[in-house]
Amino acid sequence: MKFADAIPPAPRQILVTLRQHGHEAFLVGGCVRDLLLNRPPKDWDIVTDALPDRIMALFPKTHAIGKAFGIITVVPEEGPPVEVATYRADAPYTDGRHPTAVTFSDARTDAQRRDFTINALLLDPVSGELRDYVGGQADLAARLIRAIGDPTARFQEDHLRLLRAVRFAATLDFALDPATRAAIPPLASQIHRISAERIRDELFRLLTESQQAGAALQLLHDTGLLREILPEVAAMIGVEQPPEFHPEGDVFTHTRLMLDALPPRPSLRLALAVLLHDVGKPPTAHYATLRDGTQRWRFESHASVGADMARAILTRLRAPNALTEEVATIIAGHMRLADAPNMRPAKLRRLLGSPLFADELELHRLDCISSHAQLDIYHFLQNAHAQFAAEPVLPPPLVTGRDLIALGHTPGPHFSEILQAAYDQQLEGQTDKAALLAAIPVPPP
User: Fold this and answer.
1) Chain segment 371-396, per-residue pLDDT in tens
2) Residue 221, Cβ neighbours under 10 Å: how many?
3) What domains sit in the chain, N to C, each tagged with a CATH number?
């Protein structure tokens, strides 16, 4: 197998330069795995017998931030930077993330210190030479995620591997090797030694890149990781719902089905809104007696409670503030869509004109098909939005603050109330500015 045509110019030239100067040089890690799976690689990593100082001498622009671990970043004239690492063996890990020291070694030793067999293959893309010291080819063929050597030892070295194992299984649609899977639950609590940012990145990729994000969520639970990184989501398990609205089962099952129904490569905002939209149900669940005397589970104010919980969860994960607020806003309002057919025109147009509307509508669709399967509200909103194909849903307001000042009003808190009332009239069909101004109360003398 030759892959030269699939390699961008920068990593290909780095490989050529190293080899022209008498060094071994191979692609390694995820890029090799993805090439063999006929998937487009995200990053290009190179491993070599050249020492760090030698690498820096061969290339005009490099960064030595990882030099202590034998890693030099080569900055090409065009294209993204490429990490070039010297074959190495790792000293013991004491912080659950990094070795205390490294010693330079050979290709076999370097492969054997890596995480999973499918990530330890070395490839010469020109000749097609593939070096496999750990059985990675067989595991690729068997669609298995297998830790190299003793899985407990691999997870104790780097606790992030616990989460990466689940992420690789979910995004590649592979199975976890039984011994690798069995090693995760006893060590799951060690994930807290990893920074929130690294946990966030793995979790976000799991949600947006998995073949079935609901199955990935289940695997997080089965391996004991869910209760460690998202205890609020784990709390959904066993929380009953009214069968007439949710024949599928408890809150966790409902959420898992929604995640499985996400479109391929969903936006992170939508995926997070789906994951957390009912996170407020466990703390608000109560068995209530209705007016007709019947009893069922109720979750009063679960949308607003869930929005606050989502803010806390995403803040804990160090998510961007803007993303956090958008997700919380979607969750806070996700129940209001059921009232859309009864909304006044102005309120409906504000809903349709929201920059979050596309994700709000998709969340509603997923909510319906993963429970009662009634899509009448969804189709109503689709049709309502289509009516504004030739004009903006939220046009520029006809009445502005300057108009109020011209009428003799003094700027103050009441401005927003007057302007909103005028804009509501405009959204409900009054497009005569003179009529809108005439309806505004005259300011007191």
Assistant:
1) 999 999 999 999 999 988 778 889 89
2) 18
3) 1-142 (3.30.460.10), 143-229 (1.10.110.30), 333-386 (no CATH), 401-438 (no CATH)
